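hey so u asked for the seq, here:
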Amino acid sequence: MNKSSVSWALAALLFAPFSGQAAEDLLARADAAWAGRDNKAQTLVAIQLYEQYAARNPADAAVRVKLAHATCWAFEQDPEMGKDRVIELMEKGIKACNEVLARDEDNPGANYWLMWNMAGKTLMKGVFSGFAFKEALVATIMVSKSDVGYEYGGVYCYWALVINSLPSLLGRFFHFSNDDAIWLYQRAIKIEPRYLRNHFFLGAANQLGGKKDQARKEYRFCVSQPDDALPGAVPENRLYKRLAQEAIKNL
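ran it, structure tokens below
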């Protein structure tokens, strides 16, 4: 076989669609890594494998939503990983979501994780680098239209965090305050009280407002819950139990 034939064969192997079994194996490996996302290294493996699978399957919306979810979780899991690395991951998530939305603008998962990935990128680049308020608002409307309880009432948590991340900007133009953030976290908790992330951030908002007793109550609630109180969010609940324990020590 001559050199050009070898090159053609390698290109065909690289860019040809997966066989059904190869695709299933890659996706199974990605899902297995995601199941082990308690471990940061496993989260990063899941991102890499989902990205590889998505590149070979341009019409697969579900795997792109998984990829965008995973990039957000990597940042949530390790917010100190470094500005450039976070931006790199958020851009992967944004790209994946936009690929879905180009085909299906109503997709709740793509809209939801788009707004979170954009928020992560904005936080790293600076809140005045260009917060995508319009895009975030549209994404929120699309998610709420389909399922306001998506990801345990995450649209409420999102805007509560935005209020507390951009207090002067939103307070000046929209008259939002920390009390509004508290109300939004409470709305999320009503949707799914077993999801500890919302309780933790409600505690943080109370602490920010000087309400230490209420903050301590939310942190203690987190610590008191079993890891599997919400079976679909065991790694997430473990993370916020740990963060709540640290918050109590420092309160």
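The CA atoms of residues 114 and 188 lie 19 Å apart. DSSP finds 13 helices and no strands in the chain.
lmk if thats what u needed
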